[in-house]
Amino acid sequence: MNTPLTIAGAAVSAAVLIINVRSWWKGNRELKALFPYGGGLVTGASWTLCIGGLFGWIAVQAVEANNKVGGKAVTGATGVSGDGTLAHGAMGHLTYPGACAVLIAAIIGGIVWKAAGKTDKKRMLGGVLSGLTLCATAGFAQVMQWVPDLYNALGDGGVDILNGAVSL
């Protein structure tokens, strides 16, 4: 993904992240309460790796929308305008088996989404937005470098199982 995230766009994503962490902190602080947002975050992050496909297109659109919304919010609230793009980052690359694992995870995510309640759906969507947008920055992409490794390992493991290289 070559679309840079602006500072204002990152502010929108950071606000979504802060709102989700705050609601967890104010609640029971149970680890399972972080799963909807965290799962969405990893999902969004993985889609930024899918350059040339539908998921990659969604990532670009999310960054561009965040930039527009953030720019209008900052200018409207403060009267200051500018673009202030952030350093672009990349987490790594997917192998073909890793890409297959991302697709399977997206299908599972859709099933989970359908079964989730209204509050969890909002948290999932916020996580996807944060993952799609923040992973366009060098710093957040560096933190999330484990995501392509995870999907590539899952994909390779699936191939090994289907080829009979691993006995269950």
Radius of gyration: 17 Å
Order of helices and strands, N to C?
HHHHHHH
Main beta sheet: none
Q: Total number of β-strand segments?
A: 0
Strand content: under 5%
> So what's the overall shape?
globular
Which terms summarize this structure?
mainly alpha; 70% helix; 168 residues; globular
Write the layout of secondary structure elements.
Blueprint: H1 7-26, H2 35-47, H3 54-78, H4 96-115, H5 118-134, H6 138-143, H7 146-162
Describe this structure in words.
By secondary structure, this protein is mainly alpha-helical. It has one domain. It is 70% helix and 0% strand. It contains seven helices and no strands. Helix 4 crosses helix 7. The model has no long low-confidence stretch (mean pLDDT 94).
Would you summarize the structure shown here?
By secondary structure, this protein is mainly alpha-helical. It is 70% helix and 0% strand.
